[in-house]
Amino acid sequence: MEQWRRNLSRRDALKLLSAAGGLAIGGWSQAGAILAQQLRVSQEIEPFSGPGPNPHWNSVGPYVSEPQKAPLILLTDRPVQLETPRSYFQSTFTPNDAFYVRWHLPEIPNRVDLAEWRLKIEGNVNKPQTLSLSDLMEKFKPASVAAVSQCSGNSRSRFQPRVPGGQWGNGAMGNALWTGVWLRELLDAAGVKQGSVQVQFQGLETGPGPTGSGSNVFLKSLELSDLALDGAVVAYLMNGEPLPMLNGFPVRLVVPGYFATYWMKCLTWIRVLSTPDESFWMKTGYRVPDTPRGNTTPEEMKAGGVKTVPISRMPVRSFLISPDGSSKIPAGMHVTLRGMAFSGYGKIVKVEISEDAAKTWRAAQLGEDHGAYSFRTWEAPWTPKVPGSYTVAVRATDEKGKVQPDEPVWNPGGYLWNKLEKQEILVGTASGGESR
Amino acid sequence: MRKSFSALFPTAGLVLIAAGTAGFAQFQSGSYGSTNTNSLKQTVPPQLSQDGNFSVAPFPSLAPELAEGEGEVQTQSFCAACHSTRYITMQPPLPAAAWDAEVNKMIKTFGAPIPDATAKRIISYLQQHYTPENRKQ
What we know:
The complex is a heterodimer.
Chain A: H1 2-21, H2 28-36, E1 63-64, E2 72-77, E3 80-83, E4 101-102, E5 111-113, E6 119-123, E7 129-131, H3 133-138, E8 143-150, E9 173-182, H4 183-190, E10 198-206, E11 217-223, E12 233-238, E13 252-254, E14 269-273, H5 280-283, E15 287-289, H6 298-303, E16 308-310, E17 317-322, E18 329-330, E19 335-342, E20 348-354, E21 362-363, E22 365-366, E23 376-382, E24 388-398, E25 421-428
Parallel strand pairs in A: 6-14, 18-25
Antiparallel strand pairs in A: 1-2, 2-3, 3-4, 6-7, 8-9, 9-12, 10-11, 10-14, 12-13, 15-16, 17-19, 19-23, 20-21, 20-24, 22-23, 24-25
Chain B: H1 2-26, E1 53-55, H2 72-79, H3 86-89, H4 96-108, H5 116-129
Helix pairs in contact in B: 4-5
């Protein structure tokens, strides 16, 4: 039916064109050309990308409807990995139901019984703690922080050559106002013993792998001396609501500035260690080359000897969210370029935009400051006067003076991508005037 | 006068056609796609209890279609024992050596209980269908 309809309209167009063909009056041939344009039928995105970089802003999977979630982009269904579509980043705070999801192991909770569930603080402590959710809500002063959660492998599908792993587009990130208990208060309540070196976090996610292997439990640890712990919160509220199960109900760890690998979901064990964590997820997984930007090459990796360190803070990034290039803009129209920026190294101090593929730059206006580790929105007015294709680029600078470069990153884990973003935007004629 | 009118008549007819053409050219409307594309079913809100149990419905299973071929059955049964085979289809086309390394990582690092001969067949299957040279779906 659809094919018939399309064929018919094409035949009709051709018939009318030939009828008009005898007329050599100015403007009519142009009318014929527009008439001959087919409405493009929506085409499904290929279910994978490569071996070149994924050309789309988001990952290429289908939309899926998961419990407590808006339709999100599916990476994998078991365990669940979901990406947030671009348009949700128009707001400073990412809605809970649109917040991306990333689990490592297949056995993730569908049910938590709060009558039984307790957060345990144990290990090298004087007074081990066993706290119910109501203990956390009532016995400790609530603390709130706006912070970006970003998967270490966000934008992995940009890597060249491609690396295996979750093939995220740019949507493995989100910003929320997290409310809970300062981690330091909980550690103080338990009394960390002298000689302790790290604190380990474990949630309710498990896998069928052998005991002691990375496929059995997911564990992450941080140095007790790490300043990031001072800002860390055990959060029971996300944007003022309980956490969705897929985002870590009943509580998750929030480590502002750090990649989300440390933000343990369904946090149930906080373990103070007297020796460094030697488990897979610290010793082998989530490590980056100890080089500027975490860069290396496949050749260096093959040669061996690339020193690695556990991934930590997020390098500065910024994004153009609207317009997203999916529609044309009429020439001469005043539009507003909008997006957001963030950095794990502190406050965003500058966002610049370029309309000529990163050759010349001008400053964008920054939005409200919600804290050093939150999304910071930005906007810039734009009036493209001449029809044509424009490559809009955006780059941010953080308070440490770090600015996004135009060069890619490569490491075997597919981590730390922060090349400045570019978006092609088409501007169409609003009057039949000249083209660019 | 009369003569000149009839001489003009054919042109007037063409102008009418042209006017219609111009009308179409300004816009086009009423195009709808085929049925049932891009739809996602809604679900009924869950029944909740007043106790301490906080639960959500089972997470949906969305197993992809694997490429047909020798080794598909082994790949399906051994890989899907622990994770969705979307972990395969999500990947970009990967070089043969990368598939070898992935399967070996599952066995040696993650402890997947896959017999040697089966592992070889799985690697060979992935290399037959999921490399830059041969990936189709």
